[in-house]
Amino acid sequence: MQRRSRSSSVCCACQKQQQTAPIRQQQGISRRDLALAAPAVLLSAAGRAAALEAEAAAPAGAAEAAPSTSSSISSLPSADLQLFIDNDYELQVPSNYAYLATEIQRVERGPQPERSPVLGRFEAPNGQPGLITILTRRAQAFKQTLLQVTDISQLGDPIAVAQLLLPRGSTLLATATQQVPQPPKETPLGLVEIPPQNYFLFEFTTNTGLHVAMAAAAKKGSVLICGASTTKEQWAQAGPVLSRVVKSFRLRSQQGLAAL
Questions:
Q1: InterPro entries this protein is in (predicted)?
Q2: What pLDDT was estimated at residue 1?
Q3: How far apart are CA 137 and CA 61, in angstroms?
C-alpha cells in the first residue's frame, strides 16, 4: 500500500518509482479549456503513442523486431493492483505503473502559481502509451449552480455530465453509476445518515486514437476525475485492467483521514 500527502513531496514507497515530470503552467486559456483540463491531460498520451507508431514504421532489422514485441507485452498494465492513498482520494494502481510527481515550484516574490489541477499521475512502463490521471476542478467551471455541489448527480445524469466532461470529438461508448454507502455522521443530536456517494463511469474513444475509461465524483464544490487511457489498439488487452483501476477510485472523507 502506498500513501502520499501533498504537504510533503512524495511518499517513500513512491520515490522508488518516481520520475521527474515537467512543470506545466496553464496560461492564456479560456474558462472552458481550463474546465476541460482533465480530458486534456488524459490525451497527453496521444503524442507519445504517435511517436511510437512512427518509430515502428521506420525500417528496422529482424533482430530489433523481437525486443519491440517483448517491450509491448511488458508495458501492458499488470493485473496485480496496489492500493495508493492520497489526501483526497484512493485507488488501485497496476504494480508496474510509475508515479509521476506534479509538484509546482514556489515563487519567492509575487503571486504564487495556481494549484495544478493534476492530483496524481501514473505512467505505463518502457515509455509506452498508457496513463492514469487524477484531476480536480471547481464544479462551477463546468456548470453554474446556486448550491455547493456535493455529489456528481447534482450536475445532471451521466449523459449530461459526459457532455460537460468529455473532450470535443469524443465518442461515448458506455456509462454506468456506482453508489457507494457512506458512514453516518456524528452530530450533537446524534448520528445522521448520509446518502450514498455517486460515481459516474464513462468509456469513450477520442479523435486522437485513444480509448479511455473515466470516473467522476464530487465533494465540497469540486469535481474529481480519474481517467485511464491507452491506444485503441492496446485496449483489448489493457482495457479490463484499466477499467478495474477506474472502478476502484474513491474519494476520501475527513472522517477517513482522522482514522489514519
A1: Mog1/PsbP_a/b/a-sand
A2: 66
A3: 48
CATH number of the structural domain spanning residue 150: 3.40.1000.10
Report pLDDT for 126.
Answer: 86
**Of 25-29, 47-51, 134-138, 199-203, where does mean pLDDT reach its minimum?**
25-29
Q: Which residues touch 205 (CB under 8 Å, ≥6 apart)?
A: 170, 171, 173, 211, 212, 232
98: domain range? 2-21+30-54+77-104+113-254
How far apart CA 21 and CA 102 sit, in angstroms, is: 7
Q: How far apart are the C-alpha atoms of 84 and 77, rounded to whole Å?
A: 15
What residues have CB less than 8 Å from 84, skipping those under 6 apart?
A: 1, 2, 3, 4, 90, 91, 92, 93, 99, 120, 122
Q: What percent of the chain has pLDDT over 70?
A: 63
What is the 8-class DSSP label of residue 97? P
Residue 241 has pLDDT above 70, yes or no: yes
Does the pLDDT of residue 258 top 90, yes or no? no
pTM of the shown model: 0.71
Q: Which three-class secondary structure state does DSSP give residue 50?
A: helix
Residues 6+ apart with CB under 8 A from 155: 139, 142, 143, 145, 149, 161, 164, 218, 223
pLDDT tier for residue 131 given thresholds of 50, 70 and 90: very high
Q: What does the chain come to in residues?
A: 260
At residue 199, what is the residue type? Y
Helix (H) or strand (E) holding 132: strand 131-138
81 located within any domain: yes
Q: Is residue 129 part of a domain?
A: yes
User: At 75, which amino acid appears?
Assistant: S
The DSSP bridge partners found for residue 201 are 176, 215
